[in-house]
Specification:
The complex is a heterodimer.
Chain A: E1 4-7, E2 10-13, E3 19-25, E4 33-38, E5 45-49, E6 53-54, E7 62-67, E8 70-75, E9 85-90, E10 97-98, E11 102-106
Parallel strand pairs in A: 2-11
Antiparallel strand pairs in A: 1-3, 3-8, 4-5, 4-9, 5-6, 7-8, 9-10, 9-11
Chain B: E1 3-7, E2 11-12, E3 18-25, E4 33-39, E5 46-52, E6 57-59, E7 67-72, E8 77-82, E9 91-99, E10 103-107, E11 111-115
Parallel strand pairs in B: 2-11
Antiparallel strand pairs in B: 1-3, 3-8, 4-5, 4-9, 5-6, 7-8, 9-10, 9-11
The chains are: A mainly beta, B mainly beta.
Chain lengths: ~110, ~120
């Protein structure tokens, strides 16, 4: 299995802050890296696919980057609706795996 | 607008079979892959497996001996069967659409399944 490790597991931030979440794969996942946002009581929502492509309707303050095994999700200016848990996911291998999640909380 | 709706028993006894159905509306299930993903309360996401519209499947190796995912194109439905369940199978079960080259772009609301006697 390809293990996906996110850091940090949680963070506190204020509205307007720049937030960065990292995701490291145990082996290269090529371009097959996606990011999801999950709010309490809701299903996850696809934010970014293929490392850096923004899913339709997702605000441009979300940006994905990286390559190989190291990836980053950046929120350029945190908004109230962005407080949620974020997951990275690889679809490179037959067994898709998710990171453990990063919870973004209000400071 | 694509909508996915999971249904099935919310309570299953240990050693029995968990059976869920996902009804897809707003689009044909052809030309996509479909996945079941679960999330134990307060925990992360685990891919159970996925199936193509033609019926080809891939399962999580940790569940492979117990899981079957199938598709009924005439009903536009996807099904999940998980045999010999234990308390560790208690989770919120999501049905989801996978667009090739994109990812899991549509999710159902999820259905909570508790395994308990």
């Amino acid at each position: 299995d390809i293990q996906m490790t996110q850091s940090p597991s949680s963070l506190s931030a204020s509205v307007g802050d720049r937030v960065t979440i990292t995701c490291r794969a145990s082996q290269s996942v090529s371009k097959y890296l996606n990011w999801y946002q999950q709010k309490p009581g809701k299903a996850p929502k696809l934010l970014i696919y293929g490392i850096s492509s923004l899913q339709s309707g997702v605000p441009s303050r979300f940006r994905g980057s990286g390559s190989g095994t190291d990836f980053t999700l950046t929120i350029s200016s945190l908004q109230p609706e962005d407080f949620a848990t974020y997951y990275c996911q690889q679809s490179y291998s037959i067994l898709w795996t998710f990171g453990q999640g990063t919870k973004v909380e209000i400071k | 607008q694509v909508q996915l709706q999971e249904s099935g028993p919310g309570l299953v006894k240990p050693s029995e079979t968990l059976s869920l159905t996902c009804a897809v509306s707003g689009d044909s299930i052809s030309n996509y892959y479909w996945s079941w993903i679960r999330q134990p309360p307060g925990k992360g996401l685990e891919c159970i497996g996925y199936i193509s519209h033609s019926g080809g499947t891939n399962y999580n190796p940790s569940l492979k001996s117990r899981v079957t995912i199938s598709v009924d194109t005439s009903k536009n439905q996807i099904s999940l069967n998980l045999i010999s369940v234990t308390a560790a199978d208690s989770a919120l079960y999501y049905c989801a659409r996978v667009s090739p080259g994109i990812g899991v772009d549509y999710w159902g609301q999820g259905t909570l399944v508790t395994v308990s006697s």
